[in-house]
Specification:
- The structure holds 2 protein chains of 2 kinds.
- By secondary structure, chain A is α+β, with helices and mostly antiparallel strands.
- Chain A is elongated.
- Helices cover 17% and strands 43% of the residues of chain A.
- Chain A contains 6 helices and 26 strands.
- By secondary structure, chain B is α+β, with helices and mostly antiparallel strands.
- Chain B has 3 domains: 202 residues, 2-Layer Sandwich (Heat Shock Protein 90); 110 residues, Ribosomal Protein S5, domain 2, CATH 3.30.230; 210 residues, 2-Layer Sandwich (formyl-coa transferase, domain 3), CATH 3.30.1540.
- In chain B, a hairpin with a 2-residue loop joins strand 7 and strand 8.
- Chain B is elongated and about 95 Å long.
- About 13% of the residues of chain B have low confidence.
- Bound molecules: adenosine-5'-triphosphate, magnesium ion (MG) and zinc ion.
- The site of magnesium ion has 5 residues of chain B, from helix 2.
Chain lengths: 390, 622
């Protein structure tokens, strides 16, 4: 194995695949990164057995070969090098990598590439191509509603529903639901429901570079793995020619979320996203000791006075806080309580200046949507408390 | 029947009946006499041989009770007098009764025993050259002769209740009597660590203490290392009254009150008030109707306690029950809050873990007296007032986690003299360092390193919050969170029944659940704090608890236990990764809970400390 590549490209590639390296694993080999020549490029790969990330970077390969090297040491070494050409060769024992760049060189002991667990291959037709930007936003807005524990495995995932040329992402942890639909370009005439672990979607959003254009989805015929692919070997930019993330899929049926979304409302609030977010943040400091309850009072305006949205929290130990923000309020006066975290989560990912909050009664769900935005909605279940304190 | 004065032998029996009803009563009287005698001798002659008392019984005391002491003895001419009623050397005037410093004061015991048994007494005061042996049967002297013997007194009691068959019939059997006796001697051995006690039961030595005056060592001697490891030292004093001894950790729980032993001025007594003072100091949910273990002595000026209120001196009357309750209760709480048994690694829990908010500074006088070996003048004064339980406790017990480590450590390094008194710690001022094993938060300040069990700490906070919110009306233990979709849950018939009857209780715990068919329920809302979403399991557990209470209303509060379950399921878990901010918040919350236990509802300690001094010592930097 003998090749050269740019230090920046190598460093970037290592930081991408490094996301799949488990911080603790009983299998020592998983803390290594696989480096292999692949058709004139350098392939980097890492896996934690739940997900695998592969990344190809531009390289001039003279000799084919492969090795695995401890991820942490390699990353630290490469990122400290000056920019320039990195020359990588294998020592005759084929288990030590020799790296040279500028005035620095290093020998790093590795492990035979044969021992690296194969990242599952996902062959088959691309089922959907989605704009990177759209998928990135959708993942951000949806994955936060997934459950963080494994009590009900399907809830720890994000539903990817491909239907009629649209891809819908949905996640629900039992107390809230987030749904976002994105357009699929070059729709293929197929439909499916698959559940991708929320963690995999978050990693995906993190590793795909801003300048990537499209992300292709491929699902294995047996619905056990999904492949996200971006980039094109021919037109790779920034030295990264392609990135792939393979994830196992969660078995099971996602709850029928559509029936949860209320069809009508008795009170509708339209408020400035920023104002609502600030008010919620302030309340959350006081809610911490009090079951995280934020109380909301939607007061419709009179002819001459605007409507008010009161956001408040009270802690028996700490104190209380109230913010009143101007809002357009249609319908009934309504008081309701929400979990500060669930509210704060959605307010942090809305990307429109205004939002709407639709409600019916203090015991029924609230629905938050971006105003003038796209196909996003967030259903949040209320809380109850007999006494104002905790 | 015509009215008449009873003949003396009948009057004697009636009087005796008040003092001795069973062999253990005889042992109690004889041991108390022996204690008075050895202490009297020591008071006059510091160079006398070390005080020792040997108790020997056969057949549960029915065949023989023999108590041997090396005390002051009885002058040959006074022996017969000692068997007369109201004959005592311990009290002379009515005024003396107001300040009794001896265990005996009535002059009743020997007379009563002599009325119901054959008593042989062999005694010699240290200064006399020969001893005398006198035998009394049914109140009459039947023999008297000179006899050589060691200084001190031996009293042998045989044929107990031979002339009172009715009484003999009511005895509970030899084993039971022997157990009573053994317990009694054990208790006195604990009260007097400076006296060497030996108990021989049917020729087997069943109890033996060193008499070296070290309470911790005595505790190990009589109760064994196992139990001793779970005993925490108690010591506290106010201006007049002091309390000291040991209480069990919350793990050491007994089904009966038998583990509660109290002394007042080292006299063994019964006291429901003291029982409450101790029991109330433990979280009810932890005890769940059972009882902790305590061996406590209340040291109180003789004029503030009346010991002359009960025929067998088994009860006393305090000038102020309230004051004594307060002191004992506070002392026990402080101990439970203060330390956990933690012999390993010499980690000790924080000192200033208190039942009141922590103001800086004047926490000092609340510091247990025995551990304040150095600077604290208030406590030193208190230690002197205490001058009782464990003469040497004040030069070694400082900071000992348990009786067992106390004894062990004392052997190792004699005096832990220079151990610095830690000052009140402010938890919020601790710097969280990180998390270890996904389970413990590690924090530090200049005085040491602290390990906080994250689950236990959080659980204790939540449980405490719930206990407080229960006072509200209606009690809203937990806010509740609506589920996106109602969830059907399967129930056992028992659970279904308790669901039908206990909707209100469930609601105040935060569960919104309604019957749904015969064997299932529909869950609509859950307590807001529940983490990890195992709310179904929690609900089922709580339904079981409520069902158990419905079946047995005398059971301890199922509601309290349900809160504890809920706290457990709502708390962070082992393995949950915490950010530094979360750790800081946890510590701050612990501090904000003024009544927090340093034990979680499971009874495990939540907080341990490794002092800087200890670290330095173990690294041999000092
Ligand atoms: N073991 C002993 N050593 C020395 N003196 C003893 C001993 N036992 C009894 N006496 C003497 O005999 C007296 C009578 O004892 P007795 O136990 O009957 O009465 P008491 O101890 O004075 O009062 P109480 O009835 O409250 O026990 C005591 O006051 C004491 O002088
Ligand atoms: Mg007596
Ligand atoms: Zn627990």
């Amino acid at each position: 194995m003998k090749l050269t590549c740019a230090q920046e490209h190598l460093a970037k590639g290592l930081s991408i695949v490094g996301r799949a390296v488990p911080s603790r694993s009983p299998m020592a080999i998983l803390s290594n990164i696989l480096l292999a020549t692949d058709g004139g490029r350098l392939k980097l790969a890492a896996t934690n057995l739940d997900i695998g990330i592969t990344c190809w970077i531009e390289a001039q390969a003279e000799d084919e070969g492969a090795i695995t090297i401890p991820a942490r040491l390699l990353q630290e070494f490469v990122s400290s090098l000056p920019s320039g050409e990195v020359a990588l060769t294998l020592k005759p024992d084929r288990l030590t990598a020799h790296l040279r760049c500028g005035a620095s060189e290093a020998n790093i002991k590795g492990v035979d590439a044969e021992e690296f667990p194969p990242i599952p291959r996902v062959d088959g037709q691309v089922t959907a191509s989605v704009e990177r930007e759209a998928l990135h936003t959708a993942v951000h807005q949806v994955a936060l509603a997934a459950a963080t524990d494994e009590t009900r495995p399907v809830l720890a995932g994000v539903l990817f529903r491909l239907r009629g040329g649209k891809l819908t992402l949905a996640a629900a942890d039992g107390f809230r639901l987030a749904v976002r639909t994105v357009e699929v370009s070059a729709p293929v005439d197929t439909s499916y429901d698959v559940i991708v672990p929320a963690r995999a979607t978050v990693e995906l959003a993190r590793i795909v570079p801003d300048d990537a254009e499209m992300i292709d989805l491929t699902v294995t015929p047996n619905r056990s793995q999904v492949l996200f692919h971006t980039g094109d070997p021919a037109t790779g930019r920034g030295g990264i020619t392609a990135i792939e993330l393979v994830s196992r899929l969660i078995e099971g049926t996602f709850p029928n979320y559509e029936q949860i979304i209320p069809a009508r409302f008795a009170t509708r609030v339209v408020a400035t996203t920023k104002d609502f977010q600030n008010a919620t943040r302030i309340a959350s400091f006081f809610a911490r000791d009090a079951s995280n309850i934020v109380r909301i009072h939607a007061q419709p305006g009179e002819e001459l006075t605007p409507g008010k949205l009161i956001v408040a929290a009270t802690s028996a130990d700490v104190g209380d806080a109230v913010s009143g923000i101007d809002a357009v309020i249609e319908g009934n006066d309504l008081q309701i309580a929400f979990n500060a975290k669930y509210l704060g989560d959605v307010l942090g990912v809305l990307n429109t200046a205004q939002l709407s909050l639709e409600m019916n009664t203090p015991a029924s769900p609230g629905v938050i949507r971006p105003v003038g935005g796209d196909g996003y909605l967030y259903v949040i279940m209320p809380m109850h408390t007999q006494n104002a304190g905790r | 029947m015509p009215l008449r004065v009873l003949p003396p032998e009948v009057a004697r029996l009636i009087a005796a009946g008040e003092v001795v009803t069973r062999p253990a009563d005889v042992v109690k009287e004889l041991v108390e006499n022996a204690i008075d005698a050895v202490i009297e001798r020591q008071a006059h002659d510091r160079s006398a041989e070390p005080p020792a008392i040997r108790v020997e019984i056969r057949s549960g005391g029915l065949a023989l009770i023999r108590v041997v002491d090396n005390g002051s003895g009885i002058a040959a001419d006074d022996v017969e007098l000692a068997f007369q009623r109201h004959a005592t050397s311990k009290v002379a005037t009515a005024a003396d009764l107001d300040a009794i410093h001896t265990l005996g004061f009535r002059g009743e015991a020997l007379a009563s025993i002599g009325a119901v048994a054959q008593v042989q007494i062999l005694t010699r005061p240290p200064e006399a050259s020969a001893g005398v042996s006198v035998t009394v049967e049914q109140g009459q002297v039947t023999s008297r002769r000179q006899q050589g013997c060691g200084a001190g007194t031996t009293v042998a009691v045989r044929n107990i209740f031979a002339n009172v068959p009715a009484r003999r019939k009511f005895l509970r059997g030899q084993t039971s009597e022997a157990t009573q006796i053994s317990q009694l001697v054990t208790h006195y051995a604990l009260a007097y660590p400076e006296i060497r006690f030996v108990l021989v039961n049917d020729d087997r030595a069943t109890l033996q203490t060193s008499g070296r005056g070290d309470l911790a060592e005595t505790v190990v001697d009589v109760l064994g290392v196992k139990v001793a490891e779970q005993l925490l030292p108690v010591a506290d004093a106010d201006a007049a009254v002091a309390v000291s001894g040991y209480v069990g950790t919350p793990e050491l729980i007994r089904p009966t009150r038998s583990g509660l032993t109290f002394f007042v001025n080292r006299r063994i007594i019964r006291s429901p008030m003291l029982g409450h003072a101790v029991t109330d100091a433990y979280p009810a949910a932890m005890l769940a109707g059972r009882f902790p273990v305590a061996i406590l002595n209340v040291s109180i000026p003789a004029e503030l306690v009346d010991v002359n209120v009960h025929p067998t001196k088994a009860e006393v009357r305090f000038a102020s029950d309230h004051a004594v309750y307060q002191l004992v209760h506070r002392a026990v709480r402080m101990t439970l809050g203060d330390r956990a048994p933690l012999p390993e690694l010499a980690l000790t829990p924080p000192e200033a873990w208190s039942d009141t908010p922590l103001p800086a500074g004047p926490d000092q006088e609340r510091r247990p007296a025995v551990r304040s070996t150095t600077t604290d003048p208030g406590a030193v004064a208190a230690a002197q007032t205490l001058a009782f339980f464990a003469p040497s406790a004040s030069n070694g017990a400082a900071g000992d986690a348990t009786a067992a480590t106390g004894a062990r450590e004392r052997q190792r390094d004699g005096a832990a003299e220079a151990r610095p008194e830690p000052t009140a710690i402010r938890l919020s001022a601790l710097r969280p360092v990180g998390q270890v094993q996904g389970t413990y938060v590690v924090a530090e300040d200049d005085a040491g390193v602290y390990f906080v069990d994250q689950h236990a700490a959080h659980e204790a906070i939540l449980y405490q919050q719930m206990r407080e919110t229960r006072q509200c009306a209606p009690p809203a233990i937990c806010a509740s969170q609506e589920l996106l979709q109602p969830q059907a849950i399967d129930l056992t018939p028992r659970q279904a029944q308790s669901l039908a009857g206990q909707g209100e209780q469930l609601a105040s715990l935060g569960f919104g659940v309604e019957p749904f068919g015969e064997r299932s329920g529909l869950l609509r809302r859950v307590p807001s704090g529940i983490r990890h979403r195992d709310y179904v399991r929690t609900l089922l557990e709580i339904l079981d608890l409520l069902a158990a209470q419905a079946e047995d209303p005398s059971a301890t509060s199922a509601f309290d236990q349900a809160s504890a379950r809920l706290a457990c399921h709502s708390a962070v878990r082992d393995g949950d990764t915490l950010s530094l901010d979360e750790m800081r918040e946890l510590l701050a919350q612990v501090e904000r809970q003024p009544n927090l236990w340093s034990y979680c509802p499971h009874g495990r300690p939540i907080f341990l400390r490794l002092s800087s001094a200890q670290l330095a010592r173990d690294f041999r930097r000092r």
